[in-house]
Amino acid sequence: MAILSTAVRDHRYALMHALMDREGLDALAFTQGDFFQFATNFATDVQTWERPIVCVVPRNGAPFAILNELSTNHWRFGIEAGKLWVTDVEFYAEHPRLSRRVPLAPQWPEMMADRLRRAGLARARIGADAAGGMLGRAAALLPHLKLEGLTAGCQSLRWVKHPEEIQLLREIAGLTDWVQDRYREAIRPGRLVQEMDMAMAAAMAEESARRFPGEHLEIMRCWTLSGPASCAPHGDGRSSGQRIEKGHGLVNIVIPRVNGLVVENERTWFCGKPDNRQAFLFETARAANEAACEAAVTGRPVCDIDAAAQAVIEQAGCADLILHRTGHGMGTLGHEFPADMAFNTRPLLENEVYSAEPGLYEWGLGGFRHDDTVVVGTRPEVLTRAPKDLASQTVG
User: A single Pfam family, by name (predicted)?
Assistant: First the structure.
């Protein structure tokens, strides 16, 4: 089953309770969309700067949430499907009503302050993923409440994954490997790069319908950079009309999100036989990627993942072609916590999940990058298994 069960909920709430115990807190409040989903299993459907939301998880008592009226029926679908972990929810309106009136958007702070009073938290010490904004305005209405920014602590809740989450990540990784196989069939000289990517996204949607029927698929990226444009990790800003040419190296990235979990899978391809320089940089990037994956060992420093990749690149004499760190955490977001892996010295924890994506970028030639999603363990588990040897990545 792709749906995250109450076992994952219990795992996450146990981490929350342990954090509250360490920090002496009475509750946690989550106001950002990704944290709200982490706490409720609801796929947040609004921009929280525009329509503020909150989920409060008390140390003692049931969690509760406040949402915008736009989410009313989406929330109801989630309840009917048995997916949601919070049942106590109230909605505020953003349009005036003649009947069945509820608080309006400008009354959000008052509504939140009242909800905290009714939950017995008017004098509480509450840690928040972000302590300002509308939540801060609500706290100001409760003179005995203490609201504390606890961003780093909340981020740490998302490091270690439950076995059920890792199993779902394996299944998502299998989908990305399948899409990479379709890229091998799709690359040809003259093809519009954006058209190819859209075709690959459509293929992913069809395959996901077979593998994950009725689940929540988000296609975050099917994106390719071809030729010299790929020397900029995010492209040259002129993608419309670009075509694959014979001799081009291509860097693609496949990122789906299923039921709130993300996998990254990137490969470097060649349309036609690569020249000696292309082959050398390809092999260097491949070796750096594999060294990074092998360094994701429980108990080693987080920064060892980056250091292992950099050592390979330095030895090859390509240090000046590095433009970014080796990777980042994976989970609810594509760029998950921790994001400071290159200089984070804490020990890696069992069942953390990382992107390992060292890259080389040579002006005028292109980019060379492979990205695997890897689970930390005494023996790291690489979830993405699409081939990345030079022969298999040469097409056309």
Answer: Peptidase_M24
pLDDT tens-digit map of 35-68: 999 999 999 999 999 999 999 999 999 999 999 9
Q: Residue 382: which residues within 8 A CB-CB, separation 6 or more?
A: 293, 372, 373, 374
| CA distances, 69 to each of 47, 52, 101, 141 (Å) | 13, 11, 12, 23
C-alpha 275: how far from chain center:
35
Written as one letter, the residue type at 372 is D
In this structure, how many other beta carbons lie within 10 angstroms of the beta carbon of residue 378?
8
Q: Name the β-bridge partners of 267.
A: 252
Which residue is it, tokens 């048995």? 82
Specify the DSSP class assigned to residue 377: B
- CA–CA distance, 149 with 74 (Å, rounded to integer): 30
DSSP string, 262-296: E--EEEEEEES---HHHHHHHHHHHHHHHHHHHT-
User: 119-129 pLDDT, tens per residue?
Assistant: 999 999 999 99
CB 217 within 8 A of CB 210: no
The letter for the amino acid at 51 is R
